[in-house]
Design brief:
Bound molecules: zinc ion
Number of strands: 10
Structural class: alpha/beta
Largest sheet: 8 strands, parallel
Order of helices and strands: HHHEEHHEEHEHEHHEHEHEHEHHH
Strand content: 5-15%
CATH class of the largest domain: Alpha Beta
Number of domains: 2
Mean pLDDT: 84
Shape: globular
CATH architecture of the largest domain: Alpha-Beta Barrel
Number of helices: 15
Radius of gyration: 21 Å
């Protein structure tokens, strides 16, 4: 305890150094993250406290992974495309490797290999279903396509069809609200069983507060389709407008009555991103229809606010998501003292990344409700299936 207090005082003293909030870039890169972001990281190795494993009681509803990406290169006629350049190409290769797929899969029939692997991992995990995400193209506010922008595309019909043919999948479509056909496409997708709408405002160039989108948000509320919107920085997909990373941008859809999930709770992705978690937290009391997901919380930066996420009023608004195929390592939660050394060791033995993420979220202390809460947000089931009366010939 004494060493804890000493280290806390030591680390806090750095915060009082004049000008530390505006250090030169080199200092920011080299020293600031080490001092501020990992100020308690090494302490946890010296603590001998035994963490009780968070054993969750049996769940009433199926646990769902609410944030699972689908990617493809269109080799099988899915309509998907993938354009990888620079750091995004490196990240893609890294993700492919951690999925256990060959690097050659990026130039083969990627979606077939990817979906087969995803199903294999999901079926072998504690999660019963996954919400799979389409990914729209990038548009200007006037509704015209931004040619050359974006690094991948996953058509709505592809995830709708995957969900129609696999009980484990629930489809989240992706529609830029500036599109001329945005509302028509939303209604069509809702008819075909869409349970959610996913977008990345900073990467898709969506100013959610733009008054021109109001009728789109109102239609989402009317159809009971929740919005899953990326918040915080992003490193895997090119960012078009960093200002749209701020969860404050979700105010308009929230005011229109849309149930909104702020993906990643506004946390930062890279060392140099602004951290918007406090903005997200400040919006929670004001908007009962605002939720946050804990997806990618097993990356170095995003797990920082976990202790706050485990306390009310935020705990009852957190929804489980993995952000598959984003890498999952218990190292970062361990370094921050969020899990025990024993659980860290156990997590390393879990080969299945979806299960490893589930295990680590439990070990961090997320309650059982976190894994089923998304049921409260989804549109009502029709005829025993989320997809209701969808027939194959409705999906091209
Ligand atoms: Zn994601």
């Amino acid at each position: 305890m004494l060493s804890f207090c000493c280290l806390l005082t030591y680390s806090n003293s750095f915060r009082r150094i004049p000008g530390l909030n505006t250090p030169p870039d080199a200092l920011k890169i080299a020293a600031f993250p080490l001092i501020v972001s990992f100020q308690l990281d090494f302490l946890c190795f010296y603590l001998t406290i035994e963490w009780p494993m968070n054993s969750i009681p049996p769940l009433r509803l199926d646990p769902i992974d609410s944030h699972v990406h689908v990617v493809g290169n269109g080799k099988n006629g899915s309509g998907c495309w993938l354009k990888l350049k620079g750091k995004h190409a490196i990240l893609a290769r890294f993700m492919v490797a951690q999925l256990g797929l060959a690097q050659s899969s990026l130039s083969e029939d990627l979606e077939t290999l990817y979906v087969a692997r995803l199903l294999e991992l999901l079926r072998a995990s504690s999660l019963k279903k996954a919400i799979i995400l389409a990914h729209d193209q990038v548009y200007l506010a006037n509704g015209s396509l931004m040619e050359g922008a974006g690094s991948f595309y996953v058509p709505n019909d592809f995830v709708l069809e995957l969900a129609r043919t696999n009980d484990e999948f629930l489809p989240a479509v992706s529609i830029h609200p500036a599109r001329a056909d945005a509302i028509a496409e939303l209604e069509r997708c809702a008819q075909l069983g869409a349970v959610m709408m996913k977008c990345l405002p900073n990467c898709h160039n969506i100013d959610c507060s733009d008054r021109r989108y109001t009728s789109f948000w109102e239609k989402m509320a009317e159809l009971n389709i929740p919005l899953l919107a990326h918040t915080g920085g992003e490193n895997t997909v090119p960012v078009i407008n960093p200002e749209y990373s701020n969860p404050r941008i979700l105010t308009r859809p929230l005011e229109c009555g849309v149930k909104v999930i702020a993906a990643h709770c506004g946390t930062r992705s890279g060392l140099r991103d602004p951290d918007y978690f406090d903005v997200f937290a400040s919006m929670i009391p004001k908007f009962p229809n605002l939720f946050g997901d804990n997806s990618a919380f097993n990356l170095p930066m995003r797990c920082k606010p976990v202790p706050t996420c485990l306390r009310e009023p935020i705990a009852s608004r957190i929804i489980h998501g993995s952000d598959f195929p984003v890498p999952v390592s218990g190292r970062w939660a361990r370094l921050r003292g969020l899990i025990s050394q024993d659980d860290f060791k156990k997590s390393k033995d879990i080969v299945n990344v979806i299960e490893r993420d589930f295990f680590l979220k439990k070990a961090m202390g997320f309650s059982g409700d976190t894994f089923t809460r998304v049921h409260e947000l989804l549109p009502p089931k029709k005829s025993g299936s989320f997809l209701g009366q969808v027939t194959k010939n409705k999906i091209k």
